[in-house]
Write a structure and sequence with these properties.
The chain has 269 residues and is α/β, with parallel strands linked by helices. It has one domain: Rossmann fold (3-Layer(aba) Sandwich), CATH 3.40.50.1820. The chain has helices spanning 2-31, 89-92, 97-100, 123-138, 153-164, 179-186, 192-195, 202-205, 226-230, 257-268, and strands spanning 33-34, 49-55, 61-67, 77-82, 86-87, 104-109, 146-151, 169-173, 213-218, 241-245. The mean pLDDT is 92.
C-alpha cells in the first residue's frame, strides 16, 4: 500500500513539474493569440479610416488605424483604443462606431505580432508604444480631448498610460487587478508571481490617474472574474465609476443596453 501511494505521489510531482514548465515556456501562447497579416493587405473595416505606420526601429513597425468621426469638421477629440489579447484590429474595428457616432475619432494600435505590427512583444514595449501613439495624438489634440480606452489586456496598457499622461477620461472594459492575480486564479498551485513574464499591475496605476475613471465589468465574466476586477474598487477616487453589467460576459458588454447607454452618456458630455 505504501509503495502504491509513493508511486502516485511521484506521478503527481512529475505532472506538477511538467505542467509548471509548460506554463513557464508556453505562457505567451497561452496568454496571447495574435493574428498577423501581410503589410500589403488592404483592410475592409466597414467604415472610413486612415492607416498609419510608425517605424520605431529596424525590426519594429507600429500599425495604427485611425477611424474618422462621423462629422470630421466638428470632431470632439480622439479615443486611443488599446485592444485585447487576440486577433488584430479587424476583430475590434466594429467597436469604433461606439465612438465615431458620438463625434470622436478612434485610433487603434496593433501590438507587435498582431496585424501588420512587427517587433518584440513585451510589457515594457507595450507601454512605450502606447506613449508614442499618445504623443502623436497630442500633436493634434489637447489632453482634455483625449480619451484612453482599454479592453481586457489593453486595460493594463491604458491604465499605465493614464498614470503618466493627462487625458479627459480613462475607460476600462473588463479589467484585471493585475495579470499576476489573474494567472493565480487559474494556476493557484503554482508560484505564478515568479513564473510570469508579465505583470500589468493595474492596481498600481489607478491611484496615480488624475482623470476621471470609468470601469465596466460583467458579473458573469468567464475570463476575468468579477471578483478580480472588484479589487480595483477601493482604489477609485471620488467621482470615479465602477459599473456592473448584470449577466454581462467578457465579450458581450456591447449587447447590454446599460453599457451602451452609459458609454453614450460619457461621450456626449
Amino acid at each position: 500500500m505504501k509503495k502504491k501511494i509513493f508511486r502516485w505521489v511521484k506521478v503527481l510531482v512529475l505532472l506538477y513539474g511538467i505542467i509548471g514548465i509548460a506554463i513557464y515556456y508556453l505562457q505567451d501562447k497561452l496568454l496571447f493569440h495574435p493574428v498577423a497579416v501581410d503589410r500589403q493587405m488592404k483592410y475592409d473595416l466597414g467604415q472610413p479610416y486612415t492607416e498609419v505606420n510608425l517605424p520605431y526601429n529596424k525590426e519594429t513597425n507600429l500599425n495604427v488605424i485611425e477611424f474618422k468621426a462621423e462629422n470630421t469638421d466638428t470632431a470632439k477629440g480622439v479615443v486611443l483604443y488599446f485592444h485585447g489579447n487576440k486577433d488584430n484590429i479587424t476583430h475590434y474595428a466594429p467597436y469604433a462606431a461606439d465612438f465615431t457616432h458620438k463625434g470622436y475619432e478612434v485610433w487603434m494600435l496593433d501590438y507587435p505580432g498582431f496585424g501588420k505590427s512587427t517587433g518584440k512583444f513585451s510589457e515594457e514595449n507595450l507601454y512605450k508604444y502606447a506613449l508614442i501613439v499618445y504623443k502623436l495624438a497630442r500633436s493634434r489634440w489637447s489632453p482634455n480631448q483625449i480619451v484612453l480606452y482599454g479592453k481586457s489586456l489593453g486595460t493594463g496598457v491604458a491604465a499605465q498610460l493614464a498614470s503618466v499622461r493627462d487625458c479627459r477620461r480613462l475607460i476600462l472594459e473588463c479589467p484585471y487587478y493585475s495579470m499576476t492575480s489573474l494567472a493565480r486564479h487559474y494556476a493557484f498551485i503554482y508560484p505564478v508571481g515568479s513564473m510570469l513574464h508579465y505583470r500589468f499591475p493595474t492596481y498600481e496605476y489607478l491611484p496615480a490617474v488624475t482623470a476621471p475613471i470609468t470601469i465596466f465589468h460583467g458579473s458573469s465574466d468567464g475570463i476575468v472574474p468579477y471578483s478580480n476586477a472588484s479589487r480595483l474598487k477601493p482604489l477609485l477616487k471620488t467621482g470615479d465609476e465602477f459599473i456592473t453589467i448584470d449577466a454581462g460576459g467578457h465579450n458581450d458588454l456591447h449587447d447590454h443596453p446599460e453599457f451602451t447607454r452609459h458609454l453614450g452618456e460619457i461621450l456626449s458630455h
